[in-house]
Design goal:
By secondary structure, the protein is of the alpha+beta class. The protein folds into 2 domains: 137 residues, Immunoglobulin-like (Sandwich); 92 residues. Helix content is 51%, strand content 26%. The protein is built from 5 helices and 8 strands. Strands 1, 2, 3, 4, 5, 6, 7 and 8 form an 8-stranded mixed β-sheet that branches. A hairpin with an 8-residue loop joins strand 7 and strand 8. The longest helix has 38 residues. It is elongated, with a radius of gyration of 33 Å.
């Protein structure tokens, strides 16, 4: 092998060696910076104070337990609280969450449904609301118990009133922004399709037992009378209820839809049974 060939091979080896060194450097840099970026993207929350204050609190009837939270996040995130007692979730009412960005303070609260219920831990979650992307980021530990007594007159801290007012203003703004958005053609089509489906199911649920009463004989006619009576009962109940109190059946279309769907299921089952026993269609 001549000198020229040896030089070429040496040059190729040097280039190859340099390439692997560069790849190794890039790998180390990526391993160094990626965790930093991931850590930088997380949301941090900590409890500044509570009201009622203290680590052992008794809440009166219909009284809220408030938490003043400080947050720091690089992307919009919601903040939710979940009270626990001895490691199990407690059935309580909790505050909703708006979207938070940057740094600031947030107000969270919960209230008891039943006297005697207790809380010894409040887990604070932050994220987009999904199971995988809303981890527990902070925990408050103390003891809060529900009392059946009426709340005594006491002054709330200024931060409770101020943050409640800010939260309500943010909710009102979000509501107005949502209502001001133009309705898309897809939304209109979806709504019209839903209403048409409700109308078809409602009419079919009324017509099916009426058809059975007209066509069937004997015990089958009596059986068809059962869904017919159900539908008539619900309709009469809505008519009588709204005549005395117009707000008593605000969701009456859904009531008719539900009983009509049940009527269709009953009639379809009986039609299959008639064919099985050779009674015709």
């Amino acid at each position: 092998m001549n000198m020229k060939a040896l030089c070429a091979i040496s040059h190729m080896w040097s280039v190859h060696h340099l390439w692997w060194r560069m790849m190794a450097i890039l790998f180390v840099l990526s391993a160094w910076f990626v965790p930093l970026n991931s850590a930088h993207a997380t949301t941090t929350v900590h409890v500044l104070e509570t009201w009622s204050s203290g680590d052992d609190v008794t809440l009166a009837r219909n009284q809220n337990f408030y938490l003043r939270l400080a947050y720091d996040t690089d992307k919009p995130a919601g903040i939710w609280i979940t009270p626990y007692f001895h490691g199990k979730k407690v059935n309580v009412g909790t505050s909703p969450s708006q979207r938070y960005s940057g740094r600031g303070e947030a107000l969270a609260w919960f209230f008891f449904f039943q006297p005697g219920d207790e809380v010894d831990e409040i887990r604070i979650k932050a994220g987009d609301g999904s199971t995988n992307n809303t981890p527990v980021v902070a925990v408050w530990r103390g003891h809060v118990v529900a009392s059946g007594e009426a709340a005594a007159a006491q002054d709330q801290p200024e931060w409770v009133a101020e943050m409640n007012a800010r939260a309500k203003a943010a909710q009102d703004q979000a509501y107005h922004e949502q209502m001001s958005k133009p309705v898309s053609a897809g939304d209109v089509a979806l709504f019209n399709g839903f209403m048409l489906t409700m109308l078809v199911v409602g009419l079919a649920g009324i017509a099916a037992p009426a058809w059975g009463l007209w066509r069937w004989r004997g015990g089958w006619r009596l059986a068809a009378a059962v869904p017919a009576v159900m539908v008539v009962f619900v309709i009469l109940r809505i008519v009588i209820g709204t005549s005395t109190d117009p707000t008593s059946h605000n969701l009456w279309p859904f009531e008719i839809l539900m009983v009509s769907a049940l009527s269709l299921v009953v009639m379809a089952t009986m039609k299959v049974a008639r064919k099985w026993f050779g009674a015709g269609g």
